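Sample intake — Cytochrome
Collected from: Amycolatopsis orientalis
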Amino acid sequence: MARAANCPFDPAPELTRRAEEAPVSRVKLWDGGTPWLITRYEDVRTVLADPRVGVDPGRPGFPHTNAVSKARDTAMKTLMQLDPPDHTAQRRLLTPEFTVKRMEALRPRIQRIVDDLIDGLLDGPKPVDLVAEFALPVPSQVICELLGVPYADRGYFQGVARTLVMDEPDPGRAMAASEELNAYLEDLVAEKNARPGEDLLSTLAVGQFRTGAMTSREIATAGQLLLVAGHDTTAAMIALGTAALLANPEQLALVRDDATRAAGAVEELLRYLSLTHTEARRVAREDLQIGGRLIRAGEGIIAVKNTANRDPAAFPDPDTVDIRRDARHHVAFGHGRHLCLGAPLARVELQVVYGTLFRRIPTLKSAVPLEELPFDENAIFYTVRELPVTW
């Protein structure tokens, strides 16, 4: 559903209309499927936490985004496509690597990465594309170091990731890109097994591959999810969040002038922007009632985090960005057992970015009018493709 051209940070008008008039309703998909669209905050949280609702894309009735996602998700099962007990077992292996304490320990290194990139911006020409020169390099470098992927290969995996997250019409091309990235990561797993380091792939190679608990393909598949999602989502939030703050200078000033507001700014921008276009897709495993409607076993469900985070029952004056708001109960990272594994890492990265960028470049401003920015609707993650800035 298309967004309004003059309101690039708001949900699509049709989604907002449904949230107001028909919060639990049927929609028609590209393949003729008619899943339920769930749009209000409490109903979305209920769906995401209900054990009677599954994520297995191979189950009949699952509402696939398009032909590419159907081919990819049914062939490559990651945490996002697994139901218990498989999901529980795999998540248990990865969760200790993404605890809040571990991610907080990375803060000094992330700060150094951000400062070095800002040094480069200040020493370079103006205007500059903040996406290419800052928003993308920050999370790419962080996730590479965390996983143990050579940063020199970033051009390769960023290109593959672009193929995987765009609304690519050719399933064959997307599957080939996914297989190519898996092969690359399997080779890395073999290298880590032979010469382990202090990174996540080494930890999995030694602790899981050597013991037979996970195959190299399973580790590579998990690595692909972390590599693609770990840099693409955060890059999108850095770019889109900066664009939103530049469009709301009074909010930007609050962040710039008080470093303690960075954490609150992150939560509010996550709520306000909700950048995942495909939303949370599920399928009912049993009959259940949502919002007074009966959803039968086998029927698809799309839980819309975008409108849930703009629900006035949960967030007063929801269409206004206010970093002083307590927005920590948003569902941008999901809810329930599929709550985003990388949320602690994303929070630290975004806090460092928003708490540093505007302080170090206090006169930062967009080099083009908001209406001329190229927003990316044809992708899993909504963002701005280019953000020319000057100061």
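Post-analysis note: Residues 135 and 238 are 5 Å apart (CA to CA).
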